[in-house]
Amino acid sequence: MECTTNRAGTQCKFMGKNGCTFIAGACFQVVEQCEGCDRITENEAGKFCAVYPHPEMKWKRGVCNFATHVKAELPQTDQGTTLNPLKAAKRASRAG
User: Fold this and answer.
1) 80 in a domain, yes or no?
2) Contact present, 31 and 59 (Cβ < 8 Å)
């Protein structure tokens, strides 16, 4: 359905027959950490995330998993090579 709150005219999965069904009844604007992300949409009400209605909550526990401007850091071994987390988990389960 189309949003009728603060992102008017855009498709929104939180819109229902009685209006916005999200927690606060509307989407929240992006936070400072979101700047530079390709998922930001801008309209007359401000800047909003195209994927998630409350961007601040995505950044509360670390890096937002939808962020296109942030590269994930892979763990480094003592020799300086990157370590695949899946392979490391398999090795650890075999060793113990």
Assistant:
1) no
2) yes
